[in-house]
Amino acid sequence: MRRYFEFIKAYWYFFLLGPVCMILEACGEFILPYMSANIINIGAANRDIPYMMENGLYMAVISLFMLLFGVAGAYFAIQGASRLAADIRLETFKKIQRFSFANVDDFSTGSLITRITNDVSQVQNITQTLLRGLFRSPVMIVGAIVMSFALEPQIGWLIFAILPVLAGMIAMIMIVSAPRYQKMQEQIDSLNTNVKETVTNQKVIKSFVREEYETDRFRKVNQDLAKKSVHALKMTILMQPLSALMIHLATILVVWFAGRQIMVGKMEVGTLTALITYLTQILTALNFLANIILQGTRAAASHKRIQEVFVAEVDLTDENARNKEKKITKGSVRFEKVSFRYHKNQREQVLKEIDFTIHPGELVGIIGSSGSGKTTLVSLIPRLYDAGEGNVFVDGCNVKDLSLAHLRDSVAMVLQKNTLFSGTIEENLRWGKEDATKKEMMEACRIAKADRFIRELPDGFETELEQGGSNLSGGQRQRLCIARALLKHPKILILDDSTSAVDTATDSAIRKEFREKLPGVTKIIIAQRINSVIDADQIIVIDEGRITGIGKHDDLIASCREYQEIYDSQKDRKEA
Fold first, then answer.
1. Between vectors from CA 490 to CA 563 and to CA 481, what angle results, nearest 5°?
2. Which of 117, 128, 118 has its CA nearest to residue 78?
3. How confident is the model at residue 323 (pLDDT cuts 50, 70, 90)?
4. CA 116, CA 362: separation in Å to the nearest integer?
């Protein structure tokens, strides 16, 4: 909660003025019945029209001020709650941006989406409700009780005696509701995860004609959410009728007792009217406080989930780095007895005893079967993960001792899954270099062999890309991603099977451009096709997380069984 107070400080005036306005509005609530009672008891009883007109005018003025204070209080409450929620949402997003892949895996993507949207909205709603009612309702209750005692002490004690009963009912509802709201929020996580998977993988779903299956799967998750929502809100549903019952019972008691007083001339009708109004105000205010507590119970579950993001320990930082100012100038890479597993309690290691050296400017190929650990291996270079055992060195310095910003700025990585964003081609390319000129973009596209198809597009660089670049072919997306990486002017360029969707001639042309135009850049190419790495300075063969061979193509053909098997299988397919 201390973090929330830091946000609130920036908008303290909203959090001060909102409650003040609502308190001033509440003051009018318990003044008006008293004046109304006087009009009936004095003005009407004595047929004193001037008295009635004068007090009626005062009531109209007070009502006008109540309206103004009520509107102002609501405005300040909305402003304060919305700005607080925006800051919480931003800080949560910034924290998520610092997460390592392992942190994201701990929460799941769907859960993080729920926390930054639905959970923050719950905090916003309770903040707005608190600013409008937390101070107003107690003032109304205290004011109405005091005025009740001032008008008729015996009735005041009767009204006061009802309060513990309703308070006990509220406490019971809160205790039962709290765990139910937590389960409801967790089910929203499941729903968001399901929707994300379905929307992201539409092509796969359609190609396998699995629309009906996915609809059934979503229906089940959706029904589970509905059941948990109803289960959580059952107590809230009970709140309204129970409160109404209490109000009616209390009103009957007051009318019965006051009626006897009126019959014997000990109480006037105006006083009874005011007492019933005060009773209604007290129970309405209590009901509002009960709703605050119920809403707060749900918000507390959301707050807890947001705090889990805030307090999550980011397992990959450069806080203890000893060479933060060092920049990568050469691009050499060395792995020294590196082993890695994704989870600490995972028995099987993904990488085992990895040892190799890449010299500046070399073109290195990495090849191996699917699941052998190739992508994991290169992910350790820019510290997308940290080695569990052993060390990774770049330019002779342990990557853990380098600034993450400097390290990742010097490494350009084109992943297997080509990620493009909605916007123009130019906007996507500027991810590589924000202030890149058209000449620089065209040169990068020329090296990546993307210039030709861009020129053929009606709008060229201004062509709008749909989500994920779905209006381009797989090969076009790959070449754009390579061009974007080249615009970083990296010292280390990593291509993770990033030319798999282009033809062999284009693949060969891209590698030729790398040789001629990027002589000082260390180039690491993960490939399934041996032709993509056949002319590499060295080829690293990985099998089940271990290096089984390092050398040039001819050396590996002669000495590495795994490489020979891959070569023979691809040669047989080509001949067939």
1. 70
2. 128
3. confident
4. 44
266 by DSSP, 3-state: which?
Answer: coil
- Residue 494's nearest CA partner among 335, 316, 363 is 363
Confidence of residue 82 (pLDDT cuts 50, 70, 90): very high
Q: Is the pLDDT of residue 203 over 60?
A: yes
Cβ-proximal residues to 538 (8 Å cutoff; 6+ apart), any chain: 358, 362, 364, 365, 550, 551, 552
What is the distance between the alpha carbons of residues 374 and 370, in angstroms, rounded to a whole number? 8
In this prediction, what percent of the chain has a pLDDT beyond 90? 34
How many angstroms separate the CA atoms of 213 and 210, rounded? 5
Total Cβ atoms within 10 A of residue 520: 10
Structure tokens at 387: 């080695």
Signed CA dihedral, 365, 371, 375, 376: sign only: negative
Report long-range pairs for 84-91 (Cβ below 8 Å, ≥24 apart). Answer: 84/4, 84/7, 84/8, 84/11, 84/123, 84/124, 84/127, 85/120, 85/121, 85/123, 85/124, 85/127, 87/7, 87/10, 88/4, 88/7, 88/120, 88/123, 88/306, 89/116, 89/120, 91/3, 91/7, 91/310
Q: What is the pLDDT of residue 319?
A: 81
From residue 540, how far is each of 525, 549, 555 by CA, in Å?
10, 6, 12
Buried b / exposed e along 439-468 (16+ C-beta atoms within 10 A): ebbbbbbbbbbbbeebeeeeeebeeebeee
DSSP three-state, residue 538: strand
* Inter-residue contact 374 to 542 (CB < 8 Å): yes
- Model-wide pTM > 0.70: yes
C-alpha gyration radius of the chain: 35
Query: What is the full DSSP assignment across 461-496?
Result: GGPEE-GGGTTS-HHHHHHHHHHHHHTT--SEEEEE
The whole-number pLDDT of residue 235 equals 67
- Distance of alpha carbon 248 from the chain centroid: 45
Length reported for the chain: 576
Mention every residue, 6+ apart, whose C-beta is less than 8 A from residue 204.
Answer: 210
Task: Give pLDDT, residue 575.
Answer: 52
CA distances to 326, 408, 447, 481 from 331, rounded to whole Å, are 13, 12, 20, 21
**Token digits for 383?**
């510290």
Q: What's the longest Cα–Cα distance across the chain?
A: 120
> In whole angstroms, what is the distance from residue 389 CA to residue 318 CA?
18
Say what angle helices 211-263 and 269-311 make with each other, to 10 degrees: 150
Q: How confident is the model at residue 1 (pLDDT cuts 50, 70, 90)?
A: low
Distances (CA, A) of 342 to 125, 211, 351, 386: 39, 33, 10, 10
Asked whether 559 and 549 are in contact (CB, 8 A), the reply is yes
Which residues are within 8 A (CB) of 125 and not within 5 positions of it... i.e. 6 or more apart? 81, 295, 299
Structure tokens at 226: 């509905």
pLDDT in tens, 332-366: 999 999 999 887 777 788 999 999 999 999 999 99
Give the contacts of 330 (CB within 8 A, at least 6 positions apart): 360, 395, 491
Q: 422: which DSSP letter?
A: S
Q: Express each pLDDT in 473-498 by its tens digit.
A: 888 888 999 999 999 999 999 998 88
